[in-house]
Each structure stands twice: as structure tokens, then as C-alpha cells.
Amino acid sequence: MKSEPAEFGIDDLAASPDQTTHWDGVRNYQARNMMRDRMRVGDRVFFYHSNAEPPGIVGIAEVVWEAYPDHTAFDPQDKHHDPRSDPAKPRWFMVDVRLVRKLARLIPLSELKAQPALAELALLRRGNRLSIMPVTPDQWAAILAMETPPA
DNA sequence: GCCAACGTTGGC
DNA sequence: GCCAACGTTGGC
């Protein structure tokens, strides 16, 4: 899951009550479907800092509540207001995620790109702009192995 | 700040 | 259903 640290970074998650947040504001159908159809309680996710210097993976979080309507879509005052989302038939959903831990270091995008085991990582697909993407178990392990940099 | 990539919108 | 225009994302 990507987030801009200037908006909501890993330290904001760490400072949240119960170190938990609603992943609100997703207004992309593929990302929505990922949350609604694929994410289940107990699933783990990498927390990625986009639009950051450097961009990269900074932590691990866990799904603690499955998809439910994103109420920010109903709020005319909200930045992500979407009048097409009807409370009786919500268009947008969110999940709750809780911090598991910050990584020992930020794993930069540049290193992810250089890792052969991650050649198929959705995050690295050309022109990718999705804010939520799947990670396979093998990819997960390969990324975690990068947490400790080579001596 | 630039700009490639790509999703969405809306006229037809 | 097509597709041009437009807006957004996000690395650089």
C-alpha cells in the first residue's frame, strides 16, 4: 500500500490510536477491488512511501478490519468527496490496517528494481500508478531479505 | 518542474 | 463503443 509521507507516512500510522488507521480516500477501481475482494483480516501489507526522497518500503502493517464503505466519499467537505457514491450503494471502500513494525531501514525503490527476484513485482511494472498492489509470497520473502543490507 | 503513463470522462 | 481531451500519479 502506497502513501505519501507528507500526507500520511509510517510515523503517522505509528502515532495513530492503536497504531491503526482507515485506508480512506482510494478512488481507483482496481485498488478498491483489491481491498474489497482480496484483503482479509490477518493479511500483511508492505507500507510504501511514494513521492518521497527516497521512495521505498518502510514498514509492515496488518489488515485488522475488512472492506467497509469509505464514508469520506459522502462528506462534501472532504478532499475525496464523491457525490456518485450513495450511502445506500457505496462506490468506495476502505480497510483498517494496524502497524506491525517499521523496517530496520527503508528499502529504496532503486534496490527493489535491481533485485532479480522482484522482476515481476507489480509495483515495478512500467507506468504503474496503482496505490494498492498484490505481493506474492516469494516476493514478500525476497523483500524482507533485503531489510538487512549486504555486508 | 517535467513529463510519461494511464485512468476517466463525455461527445459523438 | 470509440477515442480525444483531460486529470492524476509519481519518479526523476
Rounded to an integer in angstroms, the radius of gyration calculated over CA atoms is 16 Å
Kindly state the mean pLDDT as a whole number?
A: 93
Biggest sheet record: 5 strands, mixed
Task: Please state the structural category.
Answer: alpha+beta
Backbone shape: globular
Q: What's the total helix number? A: 5
- Please mark out the parts with pLDDT under 50 across 5 or more consecutive residues, or reply none: none
Query: Got a strand count?
Result: 5
N/C terminus separation = 29 Å
Describe this structure as you would to a colleague.
By secondary structure, this protein is an alpha+beta fold. The protein has 5 helices and 5 strands, in the order E-H-H-E-H-E-E-E-H-H. It has helices at residues 5-8, 10-15, 29-38, 109-114, 137-144, and strands at 2-3, 20-22, 44-49, 56-69, 93-108. A 5-stranded mixed beta sheet has the order 1-3-4-5-2. The longest helix is centred in the N-terminal third of the chain and has 10 residues, at 29-38. It binds a DNA duplex (12 and 12 nucleotides) through loops.
